[in-house]
Amino acid sequence: MSDTETKKPIALEAYEKLAEAFSEIAPAKAENAYIEQPAMRKAVGDVRGKKIFEAGCGPGILAEYLVHEGAKVVGFDVSPKMIDLAKKRVPDNATFFVADMAKPLPIEQDGQFDMVVASLSIDYIEDWSVPLSEFYRLLKPKGKFVFTIQHPIGSWNWYKPTSAFGVQYVEASWKGFTEEPVIMPDYYRSFEEVINPLIKAGFKILKVEDLKPIDALRTLDPYKFGKYSKLATFMCIIVEKE
Ligand SMILES: C[S@@+](CC[C@H](N)C(=O)[O-])C[C@H]1O[C@@H](n2cnc3c(N)ncnc32)[C@H](O)[C@@H]1O
């Protein structure tokens, strides 16, 4: 068996512990609701009538929005608890299944999706070549892959990896979701490690955006508004299947 087939998903255990709290808290949390979610909603554009594949869908927060806006969604996540929550949150016009993004996906029909989306989930994959080739395969010609990740600068500042080059395994203690902090494994990824795998997979880069908070956070949480207005914590990237 190859390394890709045997490797355990690094964040599975942590997200199984966090799933319910994440589902309740993320829809209003500063970093998600006032930075990442508005950026993704803008980036996907008009989704009416579109068939969208969501990777690392978590508890279905983005899927709920996409379905509300008239799309049909197929989503997957490595955490069975997250998938149960997504099924409850989005009972209609969406299907969800458990799968690991680091491995080939159990979907046979190529070229069936208008768009692939991934909100803050591909960060947890060390080698992007497998998911990117799978997303490319599943997209229609000219289909878009729209995704958010941790910004390399914000990520470097947060994790303090031993080197700012390459892909580095890192960990952080997530406080505020559950009574006990949860250790979250992740990967720090330098800018070239974000862009070059996309080019290698055959995607054309359409847009790269360093995300800032929306104005509503200014009065709600002036400290976080100031902090994230100066230091990009996430980035949003739109690429197209050529
Ligand atoms: C920060 S959460 C984001 C959830 C959701 N996309 C959102 O924005 O609300 C990251 C998600 O990625 C999922 N994830 C982590 N590693 C994964 C893997 N190897 N395959 C699929 N999903 C994974 C986690 O289970 C979790 O639901």
From TrEMBL:
<dbReference type="Pfam" id="PF08241">
    <property type="entry name" value="Methyltransf_11"/>
</dbReference>
<dbReference type="GO" id="GO:0008757">
    <property type="term" value="F:S-adenosylmethionine-dependent methyltransferase activity"/>
</dbReference>
<dbReference type="InterPro" id="IPR029063">
    <property type="entry name" value="SAM-dependent_MTases_sf"/>
</dbReference>
<dbReference type="InterPro" id="IPR013216">
    <property type="entry name" value="Methyltransf_11"/>
</dbReference>
<protein>
    <submittedName>
        <fullName>Uncharacterized protein</fullName>
    </submittedName>
</protein>
